[in-house]
Amino acid sequence: MTAHFVGAYKAFAANGASGAPPWLQEMREQAIARFAEVGFPTTRLEQWRFTNVQPISETPFELQRATWEIDPAPAGVSVSTLSSAVATAPDFVRAHIGRYADVATNPFTALSTAFLADGVVIRVAARAVVPDPIRVRCRIPQTARPMTHPRLLVVVEREAQVKIVEAYEGETEGVSLTNSVTEVVLEEGAQLDLCREQREGAHSNHVAASHFHQARDSRLVFTTVALGAGLVRHDIHAVLDGSGAYLILNGLSVLGGHQHVDHHTTIEHAKPHCESHEYFNGVFDGDSRGVFNGRIIVRPGAQRTDSKQTNNNLLLSHSARADSQPQLEIYADDVKCTHGSTVGPLDPTALFYLRSRGLGAEEARGLLTYGFGAEILDRIAVPGARQRLDSEIRSRLGVPEMAGSAA
Amino acid sequence: MNPLLEIKDLHATVDGNEILKGVNLTVRTGEVHAIMGPNGSGKSTLAQLLAGHPAYTVTSGSVKFDGKDLFDLDPEERAREGLFLAFQYPVTIRGITNSYFLRSAVNAIRKHKGLPELDPLDFLQVLEDKLKAIGWDDSFMNRAVNEGFSGGEKKRNEILQLAVLEPRLAVLDETDSGLDIDALKTVAEAVNALRSKDRSFVVVTHYQRLLNYIVPDFVHVLAEGRIVRSGGKELALTLEEKGYAGAGVGA
After folding, report:
1. Which of B104, B109, B117, B122 has the highest number of chain A CBs within 10 A, making it the mutation to test binding with A?
2. Fewest CB within a 10 Å sphere: which of A376, B64, B148, B233?
3. End-to-end Cα distance, chain B
């Protein structure tokens, strides 16, 4: 059903989108041409082996715009819609958008770029230090079979410090497709704490690509928490492109029912003396399914790379399933790379340990399960986000707060 | 007065193999008993079975704890009644801080006793007093339970839990294993500080060394699933000199 999507593009290009500058029209044309050529990925492709997007390809989605809710921009930060940024700062947008999110490698990114119009651009001025987090909420419209392509571009200029929350939310219980692309650029010495929250309905499809490009001495802590949607596929690609760059990739999925989440991460150490730590945890109940593919590439010359990856999956039911695949590609000789993954039920010895201290069996199970999530949430440095997600995960797992306050 | 712990002709299996073959032991309030024995004698089985480890099946015999049938109680009920096991291999609990874990445990036990639960500030006060009493600081309280702890730190953490939970009977399962002499002394001093006329200890160990620092009232030798010799603290020295075989125990 590639034709339906190409048809939707033609309608889009013919009306509302026709006022775009020629460079943008050209970018869209190239993207749709790429999508028309390759179509939707099938499970025959290694990268899509565990995630079947055929139901997406066979649904006649209708193009919609998301509703964005954005906090007022603090001093040193400009936040604008993509269309106004294209009008007021075309050179800036053109320099970054689509530069990192490659239409050739991911058909969904090609689709997103073909429909490029609906988005938000955040630019943090050099040396700005922004204490309060900036929250961007993208809401899916409650129409029949909505398809949105939300796009977020974040540029943190040199030595600026900022915290951002990107949230994707939808109240609709019907079928929907959210195809989001986020591109983040950290200039020299820039620091960003970015927290991504996703809470969409049980029949929604959430496909996402996050691209991070880090210059020297920049620091990024990215946390993504998947609680909602029926099908989630999230590709994360980080390039540490200047020495001294530091990255934490932190992910948590808490799923049940028939939910499916697939995280494909790639961390590219392109320059020496960079450090990356990747922690992905998943808690899977019911018939849910988790996929983690973590690829680490150390480019020739990227000596003194320090990279650590862990992926821990907790299966709470017999029919839940998780697959974990680390992939290390190391082309330098003086590096430190470690990885480890676990898949399994709650540890009976740990359960006994907690019970032997007086905790009831249910309480002990709840605490051990919650610990899988808390371990990830503890690394969130964005005020508000940590507490919000903590209480959502507690309520999802039925773990009450202790009298007084949290851990 | 009833003995605090009364084990009679206890038989137990793991995976169908009989490990305990008729253990008898009586511990009164305030007494410290050491259980020694060669590897595979059933020492750790006995310790873990008392706390309710699910891997062991009791096939016959009885254990009374303060007059109650121990096997009628789930592991958490045993803990709430005042039985504590210091694990030989303490478990890592990811994502849960030591202070949160300890407060959960204290509150579970307080609830059972009909006492109000402690809020974080009350708990901090209790904790500070306990830490001070056993001469430790609070540097491990905000780390996940036993995560990245050294062997000695894990054992210390068990004794800290003992101090905070204030059990009536503490079973120490090879608390000395893997400790160097300095760590052993520190842990033993902490245990000694917790000895009282209202608290009993069962100290399970393979080595006499620990008993130089935690001096027991009674020493028992467990071999092939039975207690084969009992005596005072001097029995430990005999074993040290002559070995288990020399003391008439099949090693």
Report:
1. B104
2. B148
3. 37
Tens digits of residue pLDDT in B59-74: 999 999 999 999 999 9
Are the CB atoms for A13 and A114 separated by under 8 Å? no
- Measure B82 CA to nearest chain A CA, in Å: 9
In a domain, B251, yes or no: no
B109-143: per-residue pLDDT in tens? 999 999 999 988 899 998 998 888 777 778 888 89
Place of tokens 């038989």: B11
Is B45 domain-assigned? Answer: yes
| Structural domains of chain B, count | 1
Sign for the pseudo-dihedral over CA of B117, B120, B125, B129: positive
Chain-chain contact of B103 with A348 (C-beta, under 8 angstroms): no
Contact A40, A107 (CB under 8 A): yes
Give the A:B interface size as CB pairs under 8 Å.
102
Here the ipTM equals 0.95
Nearest one of A351, A379, A315, A254 to B93, comparing CA atoms: A351
- What is the distance in angstroms between the Cα of A155 and the nearest Cα belonging to chain B? 33
The whole domain housing B146 covers 5-246
Asked if B172 and B201 touch (Cβ cutoff 8 Å), the reply is yes
Domains in chain A: boundaries:
2-347, 348-407
**Per DSSP, what are the bridge partners of residue A236?**
A210, A265
CATH code, domain with B106: 3.40.50.300
